[in-house]
Amino acid sequence: FCSENNSISFQTVSQGKKKTLNLEGPWFFFWNTWLKPESVKEAFLNQDKIKTSIPFYWTTIENRKPLERNITSVGIASLITKITDFPENNNLTLKIGKVKSNYRAYIINTKGKVIKTFSRGEISKHKSQSIPYEGIDLIRFPKIKGKSFFILIHFSNYHHFSGGIEEIPSIGLENDLKKSQNLTNFKNIFLLSILLLLSIYFLILSLT
């Protein structure tokens, strides 16, 4: 679900059309910088931003204006989006997975105050201090006053062919997100098992 404006609306979920909200986009990408959490409002007016969606890799973003410099496969970057029409009194969870190669996420209210921070691995501007992380995480939302907030993610990548996010983040009930992830894991294991059996089969054929 991609909003036509500059935010992601929770309205489709609250109307009962689906149980979770996929945060495909829009997101705004900022290369070679970590945006300050208190400046999220100004970031939406920044001429140096690039509108994108998830999944994505840094290297797939075309080097077009407003960028006047190349995006390399390693370095640091920021992603930001705004969530609107957020329901009150709901125990909801954010799922983030398959980030290349580490991150720190911020939940920020409309006044620019950080109300939740979550990190995996160790982000750094230097390769020697960067620690990669592979995994999928569930982050419980704190109590949010109002119906809008921002999600800001800081990245660094020195360990993969490109920084980015391979899996669309989502918001929903924790049990629903866990069930969805378990189903995905089962499918992946099943496909890997099929490939392994086929490999063994063709190996036996080649030896006979």
Brief summary:
The protein is an alpha+beta fold and 208 residues long.
Structural features, described:
The protein is α+β, with helices and mostly antiparallel strands. Helix content is 20%, strand content 32%. It has helices at residues 11-14, 40-43, 174-207, and strands spanning 8-9, 21-22, 27-31, 50-52, 56-57, 75-84, 92-97, 99-100, 102-109, 114-120, 136-140, 149-157, 164-165, 170-173. Strands 1, 3, 4, 6, 9, 10 and 12 form a seven-stranded mixed sheet that branches. A four-stranded antiparallel sheet has the order 2-14-7-11. A hairpin with a 4-residue loop joins strand 9 and strand 10. The longest helix is centred in the last third of the chain and has 34 residues, at 174-207. The chain is globular and about 70 Å long. The model has no long low-confidence stretch (mean pLDDT 84).
SSE topology:
Layout: E1 8-9, H1 11-14, E2 21-22, E3 27-31, H2 40-43, E4 50-52, E5 56-57, E6 75-84, E7 92-97, E8 99-100, E9 102-109, E10 114-120, E11 136-140, E12 149-157, E13 164-165, E14 170-173, H3 174-207
Tally of DSSP β-strands: 14
Looking at the chains present, what oligomeric state does this protein adopt? single chain
Q: Which structural class do you get from the secondary structure elements?
A: alpha+beta
Strand residues, percent: 25-35%
Features:
globular; alpha+beta; 7-stranded mixed beta sheet; about 210 residues
